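REQUEST ID: PR-0412
SUBMITTED BY: lab tech R.K.
PRIORITY: routine
TASK: structure prediction, single protein chain
INPUT:
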Amino acid sequence: MTLLENQSPSLVKPITITTKRSPQDRLFRGIAKGAGFGTFIILFLIGLFLLLKSLPAFESQGIGFLTNTGWQTTGEHPKFGVLSALSGSMVISVIALVVAIPVSIACALFINEYAPDKVMGFVPVKNFLTAAVDLMAAVPSIIYGMWGFFVLQPKMTGMETWLSAHLGFIPLFKNKTGIYTSSFLICGVIVGIMCMPIITSLCREVFSLTPNGEREGAMSLGASRARVIRDVVFPFAKGGMVGSIMLGLGRALGEAIAVAIIISYAFPVNFNVTQAGGGSIAALIALQWGSGGPLGVSALLAAGLVLFIITLAINMVASRIVNSSKAARR
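STATUS: complete
OUTPUT:
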C-alpha cells in the first residue's frame, strides 16, 4: 500500500494547473474581447438609431407600412409602404443566388482541386485565378451597374423574349407589356455576378481546409477525384459553403447602385421577372433619399430597419446551420 493510499481523502489535494499569461497575451486578449463586444454594441446602436428615427413613419402608417405599395410621403394624407420594395428585394436575391451558387462552387472547385499550380513551369495559374477572383470582389458597384446596363442588358433581351414566348404560361415568365429591358431577371443576373467573387473566394478557402489525411484515405481506397469531392470535401465544407452563400445573399439584399441603374423603378408588386418595372429596398433608399420631407426620410429609415432585421435574421439562421454542421462533423 502506497503512502498516497494511506492518507485520508480529505488530506489529498488536487493539483491545480495555473497559467501565468504575459502582458502581451493579456493585452491581445483584452483587445480581442473589446473588439467583439464593440461589434455587438455598434450593431445594437445601429438598430436603435433606425428604430427611433423610423417611429414617425410607423406612427403614420402603422402595420400598413408593411402592406402598402405606394410611396406618397407628402400632402394631407400620406400613404406609403415597403411591400413592393421588399418583394422586389426577395425576387432579385433569389435570381442572384440561382445564378451565383452553381457557378461560384464550380469555380472554387476548379481553382482548388483541378487547376495546376503552374503551366509550362513558370505561369502560376492557381495563384492568378485566386487573385483574379479577389480582384473582382473589389470592383465598385457602379462599374457592374454600367456594364450591366450597356453590355449585359442588350444581350439578354433575346433570352427574355424567348422565355416569355415559350414559357409565358408560367406567371413568373409572363410579360404583359412587351418591354424586355430593366427587368428583375437582368437585375438579378448582374447582382448574381457581383455575388460570385465573394462566394467563390470563401468556398475555395473552405475547400482548401479539408484534411489531407481524409483525402488520401479516400484515394487509397480507390476513390476518384470526383468521389473525394462528393464524399470528403463537400461534407467537411458544408457549413462554410452555407456561410459563404449567406454572405452572398447579404450582398444581394443590400445592393443599391447596380439595381438603381438597371431597373425601371415601379411601386406595384411585380413577380414577372421578364417584365420591366420593379425595385428593391436598397434601390428605393438610394433613389428617394433627400425627397419627401421629414416623413420621407423617416420612411426610408424605416425601410432600412426592415432590411436590417431581415439581414440579421438570415445571418442568425446561417450561423445556426454552420454550428449544427460543425457539431455533426465532430
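NOTES: The chain has eleven helices and two strands.
REVIEWED BY: pending
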